[in-house]
Amino acid sequence: MRVSGSGAGSMRLQLLLSLAALWLSDANEPGTAMTTRDINQQTRESISDYTVKGHDLSTPGSHLSTQDFNQQTEENISNLTSVVYSKSIDGFSSAPVEENVILYNPANIALLCNLTRASTDSATVEVTWKKDNERVESSNVTINETKNVWSTQYTLKIRDRNQMGNYTCVFKSDQEVNATFHLQVPQIEGKEHHVVSYVGDTVVLVCKSLKYIPINWIWYMSNGSDQVAINDSLMPDKYIVDEKYANITKLKILKISEKDDRSYWCQAVFKLGESKGKVSLKVLTYMTPLKPFLAIAAEVIILVAIIFLYEIYSKKKQMHAEDEKEFEQIEQLKSEDSNGVENSTTRHRKV
């Protein structure tokens, strides 16, 4: 079937009108057409409303204040099982015993001392505890006695640096014997060492804490009898502190001079205290290695000069001796000639 031109035109017009009506209906539908600006504005309004209303994006119940967190941490530490450190003492004739107790974090510990005594020892034994040579009176101290063994235990909750130090159990009868526990923070590897460098060079001083990670590192340098903290941010052209690894600190000193010849300390800060290491820097000039050779050369020159002067003196002395000998010979000849003349005169007179 064939459609006329006017009919085809009207059909195309109706089709275009239908498409336009469909597009307008989609555009007017709420929430279906939004520009980028509208989306950004709505997002900002949503965030502002959320903040004003006091909503928390964290999981409900997980928000803790600093006080609550510290209290919870304290409770967690308190619930820890005590670590027991024990020392045995074999009789009152034993020498004092010692043990180092390394504490990295707050902890619950128990210090236990066992004294084995002979049956002939006195039955009365006085047991005491001391902290840094001061007697301790505490309900955390227990004392037990069996047939030939006295035991005492001191339970401690170590929370701060004031509780660190030396704890000594003392058994006293006719004689006295003790055992000491040294509570200390981790020590720095190579606590004291020496570094030698030359004027104008760059030197790197290193301190390490292999098994434990400090909270912070601080570098000091000696200034007479005082120790002055080094702030590399104030003198970046002189000092650079490298803390790429948490358990290693490096102090780089640029263009060193003889004024840098001094002692330096690295301090590792832990929760229960600090530990220091000392590095002694010796700065040499380039003439320093030549000094021994110059001294040897000076000695050689002096020795040669002495030999030379001795040779001159010997030659002069020899020449003087020869002159004296020759003079004596001349005098002797003169004396002989004089005697010969006198003899001749005498003979003439006799004749």
UniProtKB/TrEMBL annotation:
The chain crosses the membrane at residues 293-313. GO terms for cellular component: membrane. Keywords: Disulfide bond, Glycoprotein, Immunoglobulin domain, Membrane, Signal, Transmembrane, Transmembrane helix. It holds the Pfam family V-set_CD47. Residues 328-337 have a biased composition (Basic and acidic residues). Residues 1-27 form the signal peptide. It is a single-pass type I membrane protein. InterPro entries: CD47_Vset, Cell_adhesion_signaling, Ig-like_dom, Ig-like_dom_sf, Ig-like_fold, Ig_sub. This is Embigin.
